[in-house]
Amino acid sequence: MLDVLDLCGNPSSVHAEGRRMRGIVESAREQVAALAGARPSEVVFTSGATEANVWAVTRWPRVIAGGIEHESVLAPARIAPRFVSLPVSAEGVVDLQALAAGLAEATAADDDTLVAMQLANNETGALQPVEDAANMVREHGFALHTDAVQACGRIAVDFHALGADLMSLSSHKIGGPMGAGALIIRDGLNRPPLIPGGGQERRRRAGTESVAVIAGFGAAAEAAHAGRDAMQRVTRLRDHLEREVLRLTPDAIIVSRRAPRLGNTSCIALPGAKAETLVITLDLAGIAVSAGAACSSGKVGSSHVLAAMGLSPAIAESAIRVSLSPGTSEDDIAALVRAWTAIAAKAAATA
Ligand code: PLP
Fold this sequence. Notes:
By secondary structure, the protein is an alpha/beta fold. It contains 14 helices and eleven strands. Pyridoxal-5'-phosphate (PLP) is lined by residues 48-50, 53, 70, 72, 118, 122, 147, 149-150, 170, 181, 295.
């Protein structure tokens, strides 16, 4: 990526510099396609997953989506002429019976319908039954979009095996630079372009490509693909952390613990505590965690995900999210456990 910053040339130009840049973009497209189990022709580069989600979800007469989707899915879904929000279980998994009812209603109304179901939730890590949903959606002749931002690089993702029509990815969630993402559009599915203008991305997303950032996204996709086995070690570290948290604070709640989950995510609620205070205490110990959906705001607000799961506001407001990566070490987890020991002592003193 840094090497590409020193190059000049527009990938749409036919001279040698332009062709070199085109080659870099197309290599990155192959790397991203390989990570997602898609064909390179199906990968459209965007500025990130927010853009990809908004593009996927807009301009459908009816959108059906789980109440735990990311705001970049829910916001465009809410402005569809008809929007149906699906309930989730207490473990944070979308209810497929409600989806079946929603699909029957859409068929009766003769609405061209998009179902949006994320692969993994960004606050709890809970995996969603996307393959089953895609089978149901296909029977009704509708389309399915999956936000694979959190899942990609953490579990094996295969766009075609899932049976999805659209899928969004984000570079910075797999260790790449911010400012790149992709919408994967199944070959044959006709979506109106989000940004009309020049002929880039086969007329689907106009604007000169940000080649260095795309190169970084491609490199991150290749590294994530090659390093998939690292998630087993990450899951062991995460499980150890959760055992220690429950030993130190037995009334802590590990949200979605009984659902199939990503191995790198832990959503911990500590009844009686305030997430904001926990985040600051851990920050002072050099540990960066978030409260609620930090990527959407930076503010500590109430979580629509935990509310949809039926957690009381008091519990939801005590929940933090810890994310591990292949770079997380045993020492990092030990430092968090030490900081949690102090948190537990303080909680016991004020109880
Ligand atoms: N979808 C999910 C599940 C996310 O967690 C995020 C951000 O964290 C996004 C979409 C938005 O991605 P981006 O930051 O690339 O716009």
